[in-house]
């Protein structure tokens, strides 16, 4: 795996778009992401998804090696074209700065599943006070086992909201729906649930539909591992 020593820049963009702009928004977004991952080595991963049936509620996750890498991306011709169109396509925009906690990908993970069958899951958790350390130990163990032992688990990202260590976000990629169902039946997942049930105050689970998923692949980062 490509182990990162320093924390990458991780951001979530929540974008609501106009219905009449959807097709071109998705097409320009796909072009932007696809060209960027090929020509920008320090752009680590970019995942464009939506959470509603009409495809108007968009969630875009971006990972860069650092701030300089993001600035280079934003200066690229493909991003400039996308950004110019997006100004008139977006109704609401929210940027969420994330702190990467644990990022794990299989080698060429997007080549291991049919793109239209890859299952993308998003979980938002609010932890009970003073439970972060115990929760982190349990979930890190579960994620490491899942990525090694389960062929259908393609990638798992865990992050906290900046300045809110009790608020966690998980973005997970599975080969298909069957792989996700199998994951939930594994001993390590059941052990994780057992250990963390009393540590979680609130949980929200979302099924995301993938529009464009791109990654350099084989990413590995664990916060504090190089401290």
Write down the CATH topology: Alpha-Beta Plaits
Integer count of domains: 1
Q: Main sheet?
A: 8 strands, antiparallel, barrel
Oligomer: single chain
So, CATH architecture?
2-Layer Sandwich
Shape: globular
Strand content: 35-45%
Task: List the secondary-structure elements in sequence, H or E.
Answer: EEHEEHHEEHEEHHEE
Helix coverage percent:
25-40%
Rg of Cα set: 17 Å
User: What is the helix tally?
Assistant: 6
- Name the average pLDDT: 94
- Low-confidence regions: none
Distance between the termini: 19 Å
| Structural class determined from secondary elements | alpha+beta
Brief overview, please?
With 227 residues, the chain is of the alpha+beta class. It has six helices and ten strands. An eight-stranded antiparallel barrel has the order 2-4-3-9-6-8-7-5, surrounded by five helices.
